[in-house]
């Protein structure tokens, strides 16, 4: 008998579940709870692990038969990868709109801390169980979440300009995730450097370059790739979309690029575009990510300092309190003499004279 691998047995047969009726404020509310069945190999999985395994199986469209000798989840090859899904979670609200199912994610702390130094620091100091990223795009963040689970993301239904891969790179730079930066750069490099793309176009729009120059540091690898591409294809209208005035506006803000463009005109054989590996390198000594100057991390540093100061003050107060309890009260020696007898009027006059 063939066993179906999966955690929800989706498509095998329907499970009606059971209904629960509760009364609140005199009104009845009915809720339907679905019964979940799973194989013995998955009996120790959490709900998140069940969902991940089911999504991976249905997403790839393949079913793998587990060995008959497997009897526990700890023996599964994927157990190590799923370890990052265990433990507590944290709610991440992305964008400026009020929290909703469209812009809020509940993610395992271990998972996001493993892939993002920003989240690692934020979760370390977070006491509310919530993190807000009001300036980020929920759609782009959703691709980051997809990449964390599957090491890839799909972009067929998303916009083309500014490039979604460039936006993912910028988010990865914000979150201090070098792995996602490298992956997004590889997708970007493939789109523009390989002419045989899915849509038959490898052109770059001035809007792409304008966006990248507005959100990245001057020495960022993303900006370097775009400017190198512009310099090598500046005379080819098929590869650079935009009129002369629009490109001139971009070059006016980059004197170094203008100088290189003049050199390119004098020596057409010079090529500025480098290999993919060069653009995937992490330029930590010179790079200055926008996030490193972000108020959020600055706030974490301030909170850390305040915590250290408060701890030091409390320690000092405890030592002072202990010292006060162990040391007898200070008494002047010798004690001052106190006159208790009343002076007569004659003695006062004599003393005044």
From TrEMBL:
Organism: Fusarium sp. (strain FN080326)
Region (Disordered): 314-353
Ranges annotated as biased composition (Polar residues): 314-327
PANTHER family reported for this sequence: BTB DOMAIN-CONTAINING PROTEIN (PTHR47843:SF2), BTB DOMAIN-CONTAINING PROTEIN-RELATED (PTHR47843)
SUPFAM superfamilies in UniProt: POZ domain
Name of protein: BTB domain-containing protein
InterPro entries cross-referenced by the UniProt entry: SKP1/BTB/POZ_sf
């Amino acid at each position: 008998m063939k066993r179906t691998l999966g955690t929800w047995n989706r498509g095998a047969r329907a499970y009606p579940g059971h209904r629960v009726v509760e009364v609140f404020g005199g009104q009845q509310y009915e809720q339907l709870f679905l019964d979940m069945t799973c194989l013995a190999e998955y009996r120790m999985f959490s709900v998140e692990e069940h969902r991940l395994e089911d999504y991976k199986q249905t997403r790839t469209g393949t079913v793998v038969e587990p060995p008959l000798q497997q009897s526990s989840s700890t023996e599964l090859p994927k157990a190590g990868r799923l370890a990052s899904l265990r433990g507590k979670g944290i709610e991440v609200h992305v964008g400026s709109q009020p929290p909703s199912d469209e812009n809020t994610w509940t993610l395992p702390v271990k998972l996001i801390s493993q892939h993002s130094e920003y989240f690692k620091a934020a979760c370390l100091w977070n006491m509310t169980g919530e993190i807000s990223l009001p300036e980020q795009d929920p759609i782009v963040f959703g691709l980051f979440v997809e990449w964390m689970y599957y090491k890839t993301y799909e972009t067929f239904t998303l916009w083309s300009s500014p490039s979604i891969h460039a936006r993912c790179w910028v988010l990865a730079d914000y979150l201090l995730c070098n792995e996602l930066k490298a992956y997004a750069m590889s997708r970007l490099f493939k789109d523009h450097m390989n002419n045989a793309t899915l849509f038959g176009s490898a052109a770059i729009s001035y809007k792409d370059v304008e966006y990248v120059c507005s959100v990245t540091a001057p020495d960022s690898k993303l900006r370097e790739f775009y400017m190198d591409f512009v310099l090598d294809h500046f005379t080819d209208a098929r590869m650079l979309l935009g009129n002369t005035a629009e490109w001139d506006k971009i070059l006016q803000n980059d004197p170094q690029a203008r100088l290189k463009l003049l050199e390119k005109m004098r020596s057409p054989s010079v090529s500025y575009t480098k290999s993919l590996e060069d653009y995937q390198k992490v330029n930590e000594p010179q790079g200055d990510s926008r996030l490193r100057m972000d108020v959020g991390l600055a706030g974490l540093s301030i909170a850390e300092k305040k915590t250290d100061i408060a701890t030091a003050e409390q320690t000092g107060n405890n030592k002072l309190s202990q010292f006060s309890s162990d040391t007898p009260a200070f008494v002047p020696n010798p004690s001052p003499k106190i006159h208790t007898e009343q002076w007569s009027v004659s003695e006062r006059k004599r003393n005044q004279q």
